[in-house]
Design brief:
Oligomer: heterodimer
Number of strands of chain B: 10
Helix content of chain B: 25-40%
Number of helices of chain B: 7
Strand order of the largest sheet of chain B: 6-7-8-3-9-10
Number of domains of chain B: 1
Number of strands of chain A: 10
Order of helices and strands of chain A: HHEHEEHEEEEEHEHEHHHHH
CATH superfamily of chain B: P-loop containing nucleotide triphosphate hydrolases
CATH architecture of chain B: 3-Layer(aba) Sandwich
CATH topology of chain B: Rossmann fold
């Protein structure tokens, strides 16, 4: 009797609208966070794939993800190039940008193709090439936070100096680059008045020996040497905290939404006690009453879920204007609906059970 | 053929407590199919309690009730609910209609509980509305109709699943005399069509229209 269930929901519009709002906010929050968390995990996975056969070398006690400035010498890079099993090395110099934690990576202009691969797809403009050594030019990757709003010809500020954007990689391209913006290393070092390196990317000649060579570099040269697996693991450790937070927020929003639903349904049962008695007197079984209230809960959950998904769509759209990795997927819609309907049903079981066991003889005397 | 038989029926309220009260004291009763019975007595004598026990809405403390030879004391609450839906039609003094639903929806409710589809239930409900003289009131809310009309809705609802027995507890108690007479005429017509009619009333004029009067005093039958 879905029609009757729907009609019952319209009996107390304000209360039910507030309950729906509670569910919607919970769903929107959960979906937005899951979307961001999924996007980050996907990026890490792509990053790991792109880094297969490479070793990231940086000073002992440092981490690739927070390292900036000069820490290694150019001579050390030469020494590393001659290390057994090493094919070639790409030194880099990293600086943090003011723009929301983005990271600019200075790479030798003549070694960009070694760094990113020849087949990399450019959406607009061109790659940095040999002629750009001292030029203040930049190529942005889709991991750059303001990627969507930055175009070729725009200027971005790095260490207080303007760099002209000469190229923009396709979305998803350049995931193997730790930085979000690539610039010629000489230009960056010149501004920072240094010839030191932040780290060195080592390409091994035999991919199968990557782990072994990394261990040799570490023990022989006394530096940190991390393979793609190590990096992905480190990244994953960092993002597992984000995931944990996502789940925690999900559980909290579920509890808040759930308490709202349970409260609404319990009040509804209390107000409709006499009506339940009448229904039972004229022949409704416990299951029918239970089903009636659960149907109302499912409808509440569905409406709340749809509203939440709509809110999440807007939220994720806003986020995606800055971050390319946040996106609404069919899976997320399914998760949102399952979450809202499941939550409503779960938290309505007790109120519905209370309604089902109402004694008609007592309920009929209830005013 | 007896429609209802009660054997040594007893009902104690608040059993084992200080305010324990023996409301029905060993009532033995047999009501034949198609009979029109009036149960009378002063207020608080136990007549409504007896009707509640017969209707299976309430359970006896002791004794047995047979509905069409089927003993009901071992039935689960759900089995009793199904029995009420299939065998009985109820007319209460307080009407007991669902105020949030329309006249039509109230009447279709027992049929919907019986799993009849909405369209067919509404078709039958419209016939019943015509039968009780409420044409044009289908979509009215319960609060928009008079007491007499509410009782007609209750009768139409009681007839929804073609009951064999109609149980009416003070059906005219909340109505003016004219409306009361009209309701009684409808109920008597139903009895003439073969439905067993059991009315609880303190009004002797109404009781006298029945084929048999059962008089209750202090929970016992004193005259039958």
């Amino acid at each position: 009797m879905i029609d009757i269930a729907l009609k019952n929901l319209f009996r107390n519009k304000t209360r039910n609208a507030l309950t729906i709002l509670g569910i919607a906010i919970g769903v929107a929050l959960l979906l937005s966070l899951v979307s961001i968390s999924d996007g980050i995990n996907k990026r890490i996975s792509n990053f790991g794939e792109g880094m297969v056969g490479t070793i990231s070398v940086f000073p002992e006690g440092k981490s690739m993800f927070i390292s900036t400035g000069g820490q290694l010498s150019k001579d050390f890079a030469d020494e590393l190039e001659n290390f057994e099993g090493v094919d070639y090395v790409t030194p880099y110099y990293g600086v943090r940008l003011q723009y929301m934690g983005s990271y600019a990576m200075g790479v030798p202009a003549d070694k960009v193709s070694e760094m990113v691969g020849e087949e990399i797809k450019i959406k607009e403009g061109r790659m940095i090439d040999e002629g750009d050594n001292d030029e203040r030019v930049a190529v942005i990757c889709s991991t750059y936070l303001n990627y969507k709003n930055t175009n070729v010809g725009d200027r971005i500020s790095i260490l207080g100096k303007d760099f002209e954007v000469v190229g923009k990689l396709e979305e998803g391209e350049g995931n193997n680059i730790a930085g979000n913006v690539m610039v010629p290393i000489d230009a960056l070092q010149e501004i920072d008045k240094t010839d030191q390196l932040t780290g060195i990317i080592v390409r091994v000649s035999d991919v199968k020996r990557t782990e072994e060579i990394a261990e040799d570099i570490k023990s022989t040269l006394g530096v940190e040497a991390e393979t793609s697996k190590d990096l992905v693991r480190k990244f994953s450790d960092m993002t597992s905290e984000i995931s944990l937070m996502t789940y925690a927020i999900g559980v909290i929003s579920a509890l808040i939404g759930g308490i709202g639903i349970a409260n609404t349904m319990l009040m509804s049962v209390s107000e409709r006690r006499r009506e339940i008695g009448i229904m039972k007197a004229i022949g409704a079984t416990r299951n029918m009453i239970l089903k009636q209230f659960l149907q109302e809960a499912v409808i509440l959950g569905l409406i709340g879920g749809i509203a939440g998904i709509t809110l999440a769509f807007l939220g994720i759209y806003m986020i995606s204007l800055m971050m390319t990795f946040a996106a609404m997927t069919l899976n997320l819609i399914f998760v949102g609906l399952l979450f809202s309907v499941g939550l409503s049903t779960l938290f309505s079981i007790y109120p519905a059970y209370t309604a089902a066991k109402v004694d008609p003889i007592i309920a009929l005397k209830y005013e | 053929m007896p429609a209802i038989i009660t054997k040594n029926l007893q009902k104690i309220f608040n059993k084992g407590k200080n305010n324990e009260f023996l409301a029905i004291k060993g009532i033995n009763l047999s009501i034949d199919e198609g009979e029109f019975i009036a149960i009378t007595g002063s207020s608080g004598c136990g007549k409504s309690t007896l009707l509640n026990l017969i209707s299976t809405i309430d359970s006896p403390t002791e004794g047995k009730i047979y509905i069409y030879d089927k003993e009901i004391s071992n039935m689960s609450d759900d089995e009793k609910a199904i029995l009420r839906r299939k065998i009985f039609g109820f007319v209460f003094q307080q009407f007991n209609l669902i105020n949030s639903l329309t006249v039509l929806e109230n009447i279709t409710m027992p049929m919907r509980l019986e799993d009849l589809n909405k369209k067919k239930a509404e078709e039958r409900a419209r016939l019943l509305i015509k039968q009780v003289g409420l044409d044009g009131k289908e979509n009215n809310k319960i609060s928009e109709i008079s007491g007499g009309q509410m009782q007609r809705v209750a009768i139409a609802r009681a007839l929804a699943n073609n009951p064999k027995i109609i149980l009416a507890d003070e059906p005219t108690g909340n109505l003016d005399s004219k409306s009361g007479m009209q309701i009684m005429e409808i109920l008597k017509d139903l009895n003439k069509s073969g439905i067993t009619l059991i009315i609880v009333t303190h009004d002797l004029n109404i009781a006298n229209t029945a084929e048999r009067i059962i008089k209750i005093k202090d929970g016992e039958i004193v005259e039958s």
